[in-house]
Write a structure and sequence with these properties.
Largest sheet: 8 strands, antiparallel, barrel
Strand content: 25-35%
Strand order of the largest sheet: 6-8-7-13-10-12-11-9
Shape: globular
Oligomer: single chain
Distance between the termini: 28 Å
Number of strands: 13
Radius of gyration: 20 Å
Length: about 325
Amino acid sequence: MVVPLGQVNLDGVVAAQGLSGEDHVAVELRRHPQAEPRPEGHHWCRLPHREDRHDAHEVLTGHGRIVGSRAMTDVGGEVRLGSMLFTLVEPHRGHEVAYNRWYERDHFYAGCMVGPWLFAGRRFVATRPLKDLRFGADADRFGGAARGSYLAVYWILDGRHDDHVEWALRQVHWLHDHGRMFAERDHVHTLMYRHAFTAAAGADAVPAELALDHPFGGLTATLVRPAAGVTAEQLGAYVADTFRPELELGFTPVPLLPDAPVTQQGQDGLEDCLLNLSFTTANPASWWDEQRLAADRLRADGIGEMLWTAPFVPTIPGTDTYTDQLW
């Protein structure tokens, strides 16, 4: 894997060779200017003169506006989770190893991690035994309860969602143009979400911003439809008080535009749901009976309904572990 990054020339020009990007299905959702021609294999960005840099909020490339100068370095003194990219994918059978290596050695970085304002990412996997644990009132919502073997989750800095999406759109086009994508896979559920609540047991819980870096043993993704009148904040308070999770984060979906070029099942009514991510030290399989009890309690208390809940464990970077356990 080679992902060469910016080489700074003495004349104040940065040639960022090979910068590339998750074909954010969710990134291709938003309006952006049409890319203009640029030198083959390069993204050129001329920095402002030193005396102008204190004013500059942006610099221009052949693609139009990008975040730059003061905006590129000033995070307002606070690192806070604002939104996420959730991308659940199914590799085609027979291409499991190739997909895993392409994603972790190239796309994880070139498609997401090198981009501005995206500050954390992690990959997870669902083996067949974990898929067999999935349930919910609408368990087949995304085309079948067993669909979706690999999950990647990324955090985007609060207040910088649109800035990151601008960059990601350009990156995915560059990747397509240069043969850096992987055709033998299907997007099961790929969407941007905004952080709505954090529920954790105690003041010493792992902060939301560190959740993807902390060595948790498992992640459970749960699509919840709150009952009428129940807000995201109320759901978060209920989860915290009733279940006292190690760390559970709630997210609201960023709607797809009507003309978004995507073909994914499960979009209907999604705007009325929250996607909760529960991080646990233990493998979710070891406590899954508690998840079923939680679903019953959620419904009985008139708070909402679990539509789809799915356990995952982290991948082991640099290995093909789990690629032979998906089906």
